[in-house]
Amino acid sequence: MAENPNLAEAVVVAVPEVKNEVKLEFDEPKMKEAKSKLQMDHIVLPLVIFSFFLSLPILFGIIWLFYVRQYDCEELMNLPKLQIGIAIGLIIVFFISNVVVYFRSRFPVLGLLLAMVPLIIMLIVGLGLVGSYKMEARGVPGSPAWLKMTVHDDEIWSNIKTCIYSTKTCNDLISRTYMLKSYDFTTIKLSSIESGCCSPPSLCEMEFINATFWRKVNSPIDDSATFDKNCDLWQNEETVLCYNCHACKEGYLRTIEGKWSRLGTFLVTMSLLLIISHLFLFMATMWEKYVG
Predict the structure, then answer these.
(1) What are phi and psi for residue 208, nearest 5 degrees?
(2) Chain segment 210-237, per-residue pLDDT in tens
(3) Residue 245, CA distances (Å) to 214, 230, 242 in order
(4) pTM of this prediction?
(5) CB environment 229-244: b (16+ within 10 A), e (fewer)
């Protein structure tokens, strides 16, 4: 029987069409997988960049703690040691945070644990510095309760006021204001230490001669008022002034409290942001690795 050439040609032509259909069926899952991976990259990459930029303020904080001088006389309370300790801790946080981000796809669970431990410690220290533990904070160096207890210790305060005098803070005030009259002096902005230690309390209503010399006015003093009692403690002697006044202690306390409270707020804020960032990055990485 003679073979039909048209039929043979039809068979030859039909075979490639079947192969193309099979190839398209195998390419479709790969396209979906590539599309899903691209979508995950759009989520993971911004999180990686965000985590890195979040760590930069920590780097600036380290520089500030190492190179910005301590407030006057903090060494009498061993606060510079605490400052250096916090700076070293921030170096560890900065290093671990960025290493975990870099190796996130290889060790996601271990990386998350390594990042969380120093960040939680950083959060606890920050909460202590802002005074969140109330009475327990008396044992936390740098906390408001600890600073207040330390400054009001008579033996420590004796050393602090000697240190304040040696810094020539009040002498600097005189050199800045020697040309001012009484009214002009009341309008300038003084630091907490200058207003508390170098000048008498305003309730004493003394007559202004210069920044550190005030003439007492004979007037009855109410002994029940805390600051009125300090009026008798004021002396125009350069080595005495109002260093024994309650206002001087409070002025110095406000100065160092402001510094350590700001540092505590910084630690709390950065630790919370980095914790949230690493959690989101961990979830995105696990989704990309096992689901996407």
Answers:
(1) -75, 130
(2) 888 888 876 555 555 544 677 888 888 8
(3) 15, 5, 5
(4) 0.78
(5) ebbebbeeeeeebbbb
